[in-house]
């Protein structure tokens, strides 16, 4: 035996080790998914072989009669899953079954809390893959040979899932992979025909290859237990709702039912079939992996080619799931070719249209499903307003927001327009860090007084959204915090005294502030921050800074409410020091109400305390005065 052929012991990556421990604990009660994962891998491997056979002369014909064989031996306590797919060479097995290669997995692991129930839900959403075999098995053996390697280059991989695995070179006649699980004592109840049939039926019925079940030593002929005809290729009239739902389960592994689906066969000189699902929950990594789309699978004549890329499913619809199968795309298609293929462009347009139709329909029906959708995907959909110019208005019509008249995020732009006041021609919005900050913003005062609704935008992406959506159905969108407020009606010009007061405050605040103006937007608050019509909002500046970007220093403007008692008091005082303190306080408070940050918070606290002590002291003084005069 040569050096390379000697059995070798290797350690798992720490992340694998961590995942194994967590998974075995968290998924104990969900143990049956292991079979779904192993069958799904066998199916992927068969897909890959079929794909390579198209382009590799040496593999021609190797993809005939592909099937997945599940067999069990109750006496020996073993379960075997075998495929005749692409297999793995030594290097691949080390990469695939010893490390966690997928991006996002690390973040996923970090987001686990240790709370069994919560983690089980999270892990359930996450394709747990091969390692889930250790939920039920005390030992797992994988024997495999890559389809393009000679028989003597087979590999045996063995592990008890406790930190190490053994590798050995073996001779293997057939290409493909055989996985043998030695079941733990408490899971041997799964080793029966009806149990395995039930599990396969539940999770894997629509796998595109025949799944054959046999009991070792008892069955001469294995029994095919799934329905492997590609569902999406069938006529709609032949398919029941249960079929569609089952197919969704086997396609995605999602434990929840889809919200809805759309199935179309397009005929003519460019033929394709498309089955799209709207899921009810977001995969854990949807917001992390903006570029990875595993949702929609691209097939060419029933051969799986790849997960649909940006060129097929735009980013803002990355939550969609399903299958697209075309007879007319070139089989050697690559991501680069996707870009300039006219049929791909046509399919993409159809994906967008059909997806938005589904969402539209859901919006029309309202209710719980629509709420679920908004919670799970509302933020992602907003990206469409930014990215898809053509669909901007259509996507915008599907967004929902909180407003000054409705706390739950349920106000659409159309509903807003319908409720506009007589003579109102602007869609007003306010951006803030949180709903609380938004609701308490002094900016709302003038609008409340006039009964004008204001959309409260508190999602991180909202700043970008309004930067791209200046207009909707002929109505301008404007921030309530932007420079000039033209609300019509009773807006008196500030008088000379108010202007003088504003000038005095500006002089005291100096370089901290842009302009100080006496305005009419406030009724209850003494002052608020306003921004120039075209300037970046404070909120946006803050986010960009948090993201590590250089943002040019822009000075906020301060609007004062000259009718407020504090301002009246200030106008009357001739004590310059006191006036200075009040001015600073006014400005700091306006910044705070905006959710902004103070340059010197400690100075602010000290100032407030000094004023409080001053106010209390003054009360005492005036009491003394009283006593003296009595
Ligand atoms: P995923 O399937 O999401 O990639 P898994 O943990 O299920 O993650 O599998 C990891 C990798 O191991 C697969 O991507 C594949 O490369 C390889 N693999 C697993 N099972 C098989 C198999 N039966 N045949 C060939 N390769 C396999
Ligand atoms: Mg897998």
Question: Which descriptors would you attach to this protein?
Answer:
single chain; 630 residues; alpha+beta; Heat Shock Protein 90; Ribosomal Protein S5, domain 2; Rossmann fold; 4 domains; 9-stranded mixed β-sheet; 6-stranded mixed β-sheet; 20 helices; 23 strands; 39% helix; elongated; disordered C terminus; binds adenosine-5'-diphosphate; binds magnesium ion
- So, the CATH homologous superfamily of the largest domain? Histidine kinase-like ATPase, C-terminal domain
Low-confidence stretches: 623-630
Strand order of the largest sheet: 1-6-5-4-7-3-2-8-9
Sheet bearing the most strands, described?
A: 9 strands, mixed
Structural class: alpha+beta
Rg calculated over all Cα atoms: 33 Å
| CATH topology assignment of the largest domain | Heat Shock Protein 90
Relative helix content: 25-40%
The set of bound ligands, ions and cofactors reads: adenosine-5'-diphosphate, magnesium ion
Shape: elongated
Number of continuous helical runs: 20
Q: Supply the number of structural domains.
A: 4
CATH architecture label name of the largest domain: 2-Layer Sandwich
Alpha carbon gap, first and last residue: 115 Å
CATH secondary-structure class of the largest domain: Alpha Beta
Q: Average the pLDDT over all residues and give the rounded result.
A: 87
Beta-strand content: 15-25%
Strand tally: 23
Give a summary of the structure in a few sentences.
This protein is 39% helix and 19% strand.
Question: How would you characterize the overall build of this protein?
Answer:
With about 625 residues, this protein is an alpha+beta fold. It folds into four domains: about 5-225, Heat Shock Protein 90, CATH 3.30.565; about 230-365, Ribosomal Protein S5, domain 2, CATH 3.30.230; about 400-480, 3-Layer(aba) Sandwich (Rossmann fold), CATH 3.40.50; about 495-530 and about 550-600, Heat shock protein 90, C-terminal domain (Four Helix Bundle (Hemerythrin (Met), subunit A)), CATH 1.20.120. It is built from 20 helices and 23 strands. Helix 1 crosses helix 5. The longest helix is centred in the C-terminal third of the chain and has 29 residues, at about 600-630. The N and C termini lie far apart (about 115 Å). The relative contact order is 0.06. The site of magnesium ion has 5 residues, from helix 2.
């Amino acid at each position: 035996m040569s050096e390379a052929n000697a059995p070798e012991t290797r350690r798992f990556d720490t992340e694998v080790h961590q995942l194994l421990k967590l998974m075995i604990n968290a998924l104990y009660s969900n143990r049956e998914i292991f079979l779904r994962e192993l069958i799904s891998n066998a199916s992927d491997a068969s897909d890959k072989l079929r794909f390579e056979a198209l382009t590799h002369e040496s593999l021609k014909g190797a993809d005939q009669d592909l099937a997945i064989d599940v067999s069990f031996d109750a006496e020996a306590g073993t379960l075997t899953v075998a495929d005749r797919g692409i297999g793995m060479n030594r290097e691949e097995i080390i990469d695939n079954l010893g490390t966690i290669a997928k991006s996002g997995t690390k973040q996923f692991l970090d987001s686990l809390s240790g709370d069994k129930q919560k983690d089980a839900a999270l892990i359930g959403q996450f394709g747990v893959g091969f390692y889930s075999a250790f939920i039920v098995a005390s030992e797992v053996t994988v024997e495999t040979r890559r389809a393009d390697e000679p028989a003597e280059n087979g590999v045996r991989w063995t592990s008890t899932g406790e930190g190490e695995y053994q590798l050995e070179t073996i001779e293997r006649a057939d290409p493909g992979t055989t996985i043998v699980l030695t079941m733990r004592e408490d899971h041997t109840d799964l080793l029966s025909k009806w149990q395995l049939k039930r599990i396969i039926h539940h999770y894997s019925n629509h796998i595109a290859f025949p799944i054959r079940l046999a009991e070792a030593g008892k069955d001469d002929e294995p029994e095919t237990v799934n329905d492997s005809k590609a569902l999406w290729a069938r006529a709609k009239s032949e398919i029941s709702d249960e079929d569609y739902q089952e197919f969704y389960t086997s396609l995605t592994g999602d434990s929840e039912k889809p919200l809805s689906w759309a199935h179309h066969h397009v005929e003519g000189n460019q033929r394709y079939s498309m089955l799209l699902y709207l899921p009810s929950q977001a995969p854990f990594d949807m917001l992390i992996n903006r570029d990875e789309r595993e949702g929609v699978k691209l097939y060419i004549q029933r051969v799986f080619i790849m997960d649909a890329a940006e060129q097929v499913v735009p980013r803002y619809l990355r939550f969609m799931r399903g299958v697209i199968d075309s007879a007319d795309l070139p089989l050697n298609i690559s991501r680069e070719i996707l870009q300039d293929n006219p049929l791909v462009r046509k399919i993409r347009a159809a994906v967008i249209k059909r997806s938005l139709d589904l969402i539209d329909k859901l919006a029309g029906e309202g209710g719980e499903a629509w709420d679920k959708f908004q919670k799970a995907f509302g933020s992602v959909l907003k990206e469409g307003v930014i990215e898809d110019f053509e669909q901007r208005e259509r996507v915008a019509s599907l967004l929902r927001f909180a407003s000054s008249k409705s706390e739950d995020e349920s106000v659409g732009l159309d509903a807003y327009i319908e409720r506009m006041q007589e003579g109102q021609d602007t869609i007003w919005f306010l951006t803030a860090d949180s709903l609380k900050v938004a609701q308490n913003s002094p900016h709302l005062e003038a609008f409340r007084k006039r009964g004008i609704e204001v959309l409260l935008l508190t999602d991180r992406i909202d700043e970008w959204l309004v930067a791209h959506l200046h207009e909707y159905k002929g109505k301008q969108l404007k921030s309530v915090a932007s420079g000039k407020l033209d609300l019509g009606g009773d807006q008196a010009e500030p008088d000379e005294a108010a202007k003088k007061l504003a000038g005095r405050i500006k002089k005291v605040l100096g370089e901290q502030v842009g302009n100080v103006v006496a305005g009419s937007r406030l009724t209850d608050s003494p002052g608020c921050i306003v921004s120039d019509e075209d300037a970046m909002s404070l909120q946006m500046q803050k986010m960009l800074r948090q993201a590590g970007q250089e943002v040019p220093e822009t000075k906020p403007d301060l609007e004062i409410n000259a009718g407020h008692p504090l301002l009246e008091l200030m106008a009357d005082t001739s004590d310059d020091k006191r006036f200075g303190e009040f001015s600073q306080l006014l400005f700091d408070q306006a910044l705070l109400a905006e959710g902004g940050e103070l340059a010197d918070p400690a100075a602010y606290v000290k100032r407030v305390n000094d004023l409080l002590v001053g106010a209390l002291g003054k009360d005492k003084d005036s009491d003394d005065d009283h006593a003296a005069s009595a």
